[in-house]
From TrEMBL:
Source species, domain of life: Bacteria
Protein's name according to its UniProt entry: DUF4293 family protein
Transmembrane segments: 7-26, 61-81, 88-108, 120-141
Coiled coil, from the record: none
Organism from which the protein derives: Belliella buryatensis
Keyword terms, alphabetized: Membrane, Transmembrane, Transmembrane helix
Signal peptide: none
Keyword check for Cell membrane: no
InterPro entries: DUF4293
Length: 159
């Protein structure tokens, strides 16, 4: 049924991955406070703090694509409420996609940090923490799907 609690959790997974796409993930300022590097789902951008013009921009389209895949998987899993085993499998794949996305974000931010200011770590912002929220919601959805499946099996055993 659509009105189950796991449906809400799967919808929140999709919302959190849209937050990853929409908001910055990581930011760092160089030691002179003249340039700022910002990582979002689509690019790694270096801007000048005084004039706010873009100095350098590198495409990181793979982060955005992985976030879109995780969003699509969550929404597709939401519609598969009649087949709970398929729904759990889709959520497992979605967890793997989010872990790969998280690993690539950490790797990319570490590489960018080494270039601009290796002494001080950058700040992870909303887009980064939204992935953790999505992972937690995905785990909760899987837990409630598994609970429903066990309940259905126990009722079938009684009959």
């Amino acid at each position: 049924m659509i009105q189950r609690i796991q449906t809400v959790f799967l919808f929140l997974v999709a919302v959190s991955m849209i937050l990853v796409i929409s908001f910055p993930i990581w930011q760092q300022v160089n030691p002179d406070q003249t340039q700022m590097v910002t990582l979002n789902a689509w690019s790694l951008t270096t801007t000048d703090n005084t004039s706010q013009e873009i100095i350098k921009s590198e495409g990181n389209i793979y982060l955005g694509i992985l976030a879109l895949i995780a969003t699509g998987l969550a929404l597709f899993s939401l519609t598969q409420y009649k087949n709970r085993t398929k729904q759990m499998f889709l959520n497992m794949i979605n967890s793997l996609v989010m872990i790969v996305t998280l690993a690539l974000i950490i790797y990319t931010s570490h590489q960018a940090n080494a270039e601009i200011n290796p002494d001080v770590n950058g700040a992870f912002v909303l887009g980064f923490w939204a992935i953790f929220g999505g992972m937690i919601m995905n785990l909760l959805a899987n837990r409630f799907i598994r609970k429903d499946e066990m309940l259905v099996r126990s009722v079938d055993r009684i009959r």
